[in-house]
Amino acid sequence: MPVNRDQIKELLEQTQSGRLSVDEAADRLTRLPYEDLEFARIDHHRDLRIGFPEVILGQGKSVEQIVKIADRILTESSNLLISRTSEEVFREILRLAPDAEYHAEARMISVRRDRTERGAGDIAIISAGTSDIPVAEEAAITATAMGNRVHRIYDVGVAGIHRLFGARADFETARVIIVVAGMEGALPSVVGGLVSVPVIAVPTSIGYGASFGGIAALLGMLNSCASNVTVVNIDNGFGAGFVASLINRKRL
Amino acid sequence: MPVNRDQIKELLEQTQSGRLSVDEAADRLTRLPYEDLEFARIDHHRDLRIGFPEVILGQGKSVEQIVKIADRILTESSNLLISRTSEEVFREILRLAPDAEYHAEARMISVRRDRTERGAGDIAIISAGTSDIPVAEEAAITATAMGNRVHRIYDVGVAGIHRLFGARADFETARVIIVVAGMEGALPSVVGGLVSVPVIAVPTSIGYGASFGGIAALLGMLNSCASNVTVVNIDNGFGAGFVASLINRKRL
Amino acid sequence: MPVNRDQIKELLEQTQSGRLSVDEAADRLTRLPYEDLEFARIDHHRDLRIGFPEVILGQGKSVEQIVKIADRILTESSNLLISRTSEEVFREILRLAPDAEYHAEARMISVRRDRTERGAGDIAIISAGTSDIPVAEEAAITATAMGNRVHRIYDVGVAGIHRLFGARADFETARVIIVVAGMEGALPSVVGGLVSVPVIAVPTSIGYGASFGGIAALLGMLNSCASNVTVVNIDNGFGAGFVASLINRKRL
Amino acid sequence: MPVNRDQIKELLEQTQSGRLSVDEAADRLTRLPYEDLEFARIDHHRDLRIGFPEVILGQGKSVEQIVKIADRILTESSNLLISRTSEEVFREILRLAPDAEYHAEARMISVRRDRTERGAGDIAIISAGTSDIPVAEEAAITATAMGNRVHRIYDVGVAGIHRLFGARADFETARVIIVVAGMEGALPSVVGGLVSVPVIAVPTSIGYGASFGGIAALLGMLNSCASNVTVVNIDNGFGAGFVASLINRKRL
Amino acid sequence: MPVNRDQIKELLEQTQSGRLSVDEAADRLTRLPYEDLEFARIDHHRDLRIGFPEVILGQGKSVEQIVKIADRILTESSNLLISRTSEEVFREILRLAPDAEYHAEARMISVRRDRTERGAGDIAIISAGTSDIPVAEEAAITATAMGNRVHRIYDVGVAGIHRLFGARADFETARVIIVVAGMEGALPSVVGGLVSVPVIAVPTSIGYGASFGGIAALLGMLNSCASNVTVVNIDNGFGAGFVASLINRKRL
Amino acid sequence: MPVNRDQIKELLEQTQSGRLSVDEAADRLTRLPYEDLEFARIDHHRDLRIGFPEVILGQGKSVEQIVKIADRILTESSNLLISRTSEEVFREILRLAPDAEYHAEARMISVRRDRTERGAGDIAIISAGTSDIPVAEEAAITATAMGNRVHRIYDVGVAGIHRLFGARADFETARVIIVVAGMEGALPSVVGGLVSVPVIAVPTSIGYGASFGGIAALLGMLNSCASNVTVVNIDNGFGAGFVASLINRKRL
Amino acid sequence: MPVNRDQIKELLEQTQSGRLSVDEAADRLTRLPYEDLEFARIDHHRDLRIGFPEVILGQGKSVEQIVKIADRILTESSNLLISRTSEEVFREILRLAPDAEYHAEARMISVRRDRTERGAGDIAIISAGTSDIPVAEEAAITATAMGNRVHRIYDVGVAGIHRLFGARADFETARVIIVVAGMEGALPSVVGGLVSVPVIAVPTSIGYGASFGGIAALLGMLNSCASNVTVVNIDNGFGAGFVASLINRKRL
Amino acid sequence: MPVNRDQIKELLEQTQSGRLSVDEAADRLTRLPYEDLEFARIDHHRDLRIGFPEVILGQGKSVEQIVKIADRILTESSNLLISRTSEEVFREILRLAPDAEYHAEARMISVRRDRTERGAGDIAIISAGTSDIPVAEEAAITATAMGNRVHRIYDVGVAGIHRLFGARADFETARVIIVVAGMEGALPSVVGGLVSVPVIAVPTSIGYGASFGGIAALLGMLNSCASNVTVVNIDNGFGAGFVASLINRKRL
Questions:
Q1: Most CB within 10 Å of its CB: which of B16, C70, F18, F30?
Q2: What mean pLDDT do residues G19-29 have?
Q3: Which residue in chain E has the smallest CA separation from C132?
Q4: CB-CB: which of A157, A184, A189 is closest to B159?
């Protein structure tokens, strides 16, 4: 499925000149850029399109489904990332890839054969509380897997704001900052006001009562009075790490 | 309606000894400590019980109803406070009390004949943004009317946190602090972490989109990670000023 | 991080006069008033700032994390409080502090070596139903740990209001009152109308159906028609006990 | 549409015996017990079935529609009730029925030619605040129109509970009680605990901020800890007056 | 706590005449009409006031607490009802009351020594689906325990409305009708339109997806276009049975 | 943008044989099947793809924008439909199309030059109340414009269910039924249970209090216990009419 | 319960002429078209009325109840369908019907003795992700059981939209399309814009955080900008399959 | 308020060496980096810190307040931006800055004296519908004011997805993409899947019924299955334009 006029013209000229048969040209214009496993269609072009192979969201898939998809991805790509997974899955993946690693706090599996550094600068990951660390780690593992240097600054919530100021040197030179917070979700606004780079806010489901599983933090972040803050889904450390990596990507 | 055993015993002894007739004793035991205007029952004992005459919530009452209630309160008390009211009501109140004042931003009317200072310390009132000032003023007028010294510190939201630190001298000696904020409602947590006195958080309906008329700020405050924060209803500057006054009240 | 101009001037004069080296002065101006355990930053200055050492919220932390934090706090402070914890944690804490106590209903651990009485008056804690007692106990243990005399008045819900009146002597002399209620959350309004001191309302998640895990009680309390009521998060007995202690604190 | 077997058997016997033609029998078995105005189908049997003619809900209908429906109802019934209406409609109704009355606070129009007393006892209508009176009046006018003696007890909210006790004589002998309250909606629980008759709770949209247009009061009432409380829709004074009348109806 | 003037006058006259000592009179005026178990205050007057002893809500109470409260109630009353309980509790109650019964579907325990018939008419209990039966049974057991004749009409939901019409004879003579329904909660409106007696609607948490644990049914019932419908909390079969019993109570 | 392989192969063969130039072939493969007005892109292929020209949603567009879009549509298609519009727009449209009609209750404008009958059967449109008629009319006008015979059955809500049964002959032969209802939204379930054809339920924002602008009706319909019911957005009469027309379309 | 005038007239003429006794006529006019199992009323006429026997919703029913109902249905109908059930129930059903099948992913049991093809065209079932497959399968099994040819197109979510285009040939000739999606629920809009047949959207509870158990997908589908989309309840694959079958039914 | 150790050390060395007086040093360490207008504190350092002067949010401020703040900003910065404002404010600003421009659709005022190009690449702004254009324009004006080249691609919603593909050349080379959409908010997911750069999603309040003022679109975007999507508040075009500018900023 060529997407721009130049590619199409080139293909048509090859057809007209006979270098390409009509059938082959039709194939190229219609072929599937994905692999169909019946229960899943693996998007092998994503590596080219997005710069990273399709990541497997473990949640909601059976161990068998995950292993089959992983097997196919590893055939086409050097790296692999599985999120929201378990040690049980990890044991199976080890058979496919003995160099796979399990990140227990982040509940992720990674295979990292291509370790090219792709970041223009650093990514800082700040968490408000100790309980937010699993989500922060999901962001950190993702950003690392995508070729970035990561700084972790944990447990610097706004109720003891001098802790954040004490750690300022660790985040004020970052090219992009991820802020992970539950409860009132106020930390991204404070961090956002201190820096001039994009801040990606990740609400967590940490809290109780009127935190409503992360809604309080989510709303707080969406209403941030700092203009450099954008937001991802509750507990979506992966998404934050992914977008931060895109922002930080070296221009080639 | 005497409320404790000693008062009841004394009354019974007076009855037994004949100093009090049965009818009078029955009256005292059953009489109404309020005045019935049919559409409103004015609680004249509140002045004794709570330390301030009943405040008239203007919203939802007709001009006539407000004036009648105000008239009855001024008969029994030296002070008067009307909230969520208008200039139209003010013009009518001026006929009853030429010394009444209208506070336009706070939309309140006050009569203040008894100006005894009742506060043990100071009350600081901090607002996050310019648009939160009307609610902050409602708190300030209430606290002033109840005999307190008030410090106003406005527009020191968390996205430019050095503004708050610059004003620190103005609030760090207060006995109780009121923090008024809309949008993400993060300011009470930051202030709460800096001081060792009670902080009363007032969410405002300022904001748009996912602020949902103050819900985002309210939830943020209820989930504050600072332990010295309590919360009142959205836009309830009056309630915050009232409770702050009770906390600050001199022990007699 | 000195916070006021006088402290800074004194430090600068010491530097100018050579009593303080530039390095030491820079240290004092930038040093961290907390201890970094990597997964947690313990705020040792809180004892000075807030008047009580940092309390450990057990929920969301591993046993190891709690024990390490507790160990560090006990090095610097004489008292310790852990909320939302378990007997399993308690067994580990006993090794650090054989004088630790476990409060099963409140699910709290306390170490209380400094038992100075710090309250100016008494704190009354009123619960609406039998099922609300665990939250009420969390408030009671907190207030006791912070040096207050506490009166418990349990199961006096509004549907049998004579029970509340029967217990009136037990709460009408308190300096501050905590009211804990689930279901419709009406009790704080009734209590608030009977007294002239601040009332801290704690909604609980007790109830079923349209109680929505405490939302009904929370909304009821936020909309209280009694002006002396402020609110904390659902089931936040600790926060209520903490603020009540600050309100009740003796002036020194 | 005959509804029970006996009626059907009688009709069939009449058909079999020839006293009733097949056509007429078919008519009776299928005929419409209502009148079709195209935009409305008036249920003339309701008077028999429910004991009161269909009441016209004015909201959402044009003046012309209301007048046409009213005209048809007055042809078949002696009484008429229009709710959520306006003076403009009233002026038109006066042409049809010069004896019509307009109840401004309740925003209702009534025609009452049949004034039979139908209640076995009295109905008490209690409102928490002055602003709740319009809804209370809707209930009162409805219950009066349906042939009941009504006692109004207004402005006895729970924050000054002695006002309620002072009015106890006015409601403790009622056969059924309607309690109208906005804000926290606590009053039905308190009243419910004091009496042994059914209490119908009507939440009102009175309040601001977290009252959410009556949701807080509604949830409070649904979660009432008093077992004798049932609830109707927010601001549905009419429904409360209607059900109270059914409960109070004399057995014939 | 005598409640009316006549009782108070009589007591005062007895005091004046010396038939009653001051101490005894003070006692009577202040004494507690409940028994304090520390974790619960049992309201023994409720039997007189409401016509049925306090019912124990099992949910949220320990087995020990339930048994202690049950023991005290059985000392003062002939009947007992425990809701939202379990077989485990039942085995303990059997030791106190060998004549206790366990109603498994309703999850209730009853002791019924006084079996006086108290109902003026019958109570019909209609359920929409098979899954709603446990809640319907809670209502049925409650109404039976309070001395009423009960008709059960189950699984007559609106999607097969001829089933409801087929059962019409079973409910059209009832004095009050309870309708239990989950999912869209439409049945009370249909039933309400067919009868002229009060209908008590009980939403259930039956359903999935957008039923949101009973919210859909609850809202449907609150918005019923039938004017004779009132509503109780989600799954509150007990409350419906209780109010129905009060409505149906014989006048004495 | 040819969509299937055969079209593509044909185009390629024409290119190879020289009947089609490379440029023209590239044009066909990339050209825009819509017209770009800068503020709107009109989808002229929709007529072919969906069977009806793009309908203009008036809400949120300026008069000028609507007129420009209408002008372009009428160039390519014989029919036109504008929803959620006003008389002001109608006056402008009349200049473009003197045969345009304004349907005031539905707030729609239609031009109908092609009046081919396209329906296989009839479409019945049932409304619960008089106030629901505008939404029902929006559905009716849409279905009529799309070439269907429509039966209107209005004001047959469930609280007087005999009215629905009386009108049964009018809807039981329809090929598809639209049911429009506000308040509790129960009517689609009842209708759904009576017929064997698809029922499209349209919740309306009619109601007050806990109807929450149509949420109650929407949830009721989504939870319908009748399996033949699907739902569209609140007040979306147009969508219901559109889908009903697709279901009813004659097979060609 | 004959439903139209012609049937009634015929029956009356038979009665009049004596061919039918009064008793038998009365029976026919009142008899129950369902079977009463006390806990369930089985609607045997549904087969005629809706074209498929009553389907048993397994959720919320005991194994015994399901088996009894299944037994009765199989007496009257050749086919049977049980949804939201388990292998445990399947083992019991096998005793009644050794030809029953269990569909594990869909959690359904089917008996299919009448395999008449009833569909005019094909039904396409499209799912966005691998985790949505169980709901898609519920729709597929239902549509198959009701006599339709079904095309399954799984894992073609909008974030890799070329996967959907690649599968276009599989759905563009269908008579009706079911689209199953969780998370943002965008797929029905995209599919809807590509075809000219009705699209039934099924939101699933797949997702986390702000997906709120399917609310995000549900709202997305209700607000679809494609006019040919209607929606069923979250996870209601059965309903979607049922309505699709009705739409696709051959005209006889 | 110097923020890093080196700056502090330098300042201290200057003090020690006498080049800086103690008073001046104290001033620098404590001085306010903002200007206090009493109702607003203008953050002049933001220009340095964030790279753009403080933007004035017009909503909630009086004309006088806006003009005063604008006046002060223009003293210190060459550019100015006012959002959510009106022509009335514009007329006043023109007196301060005759070169100010009013962007009617975006409801913004800009002064742009420094027109340095600061973007490394282009920013594409895509809107789903015509009604979303005002929010898209707010983003476009902001990004332009911050020195970026902007491509506008409007009215390419997902229900006619070929319109998006037709415009692909206009957005596939952008460095960052803003996608503005109301209703179901599906467009960011589709765009996100087509590109390898960050996508900022802006939900709009466009829609009706179950769009709930933009909640449906917001939830859709938060749950996007495309990993490169982050979200800002409903209607927050400004925030999207601001963050896109930060992402696109040239490295210096």
A1: C70
A2: 75
A3: E60
A4: A189
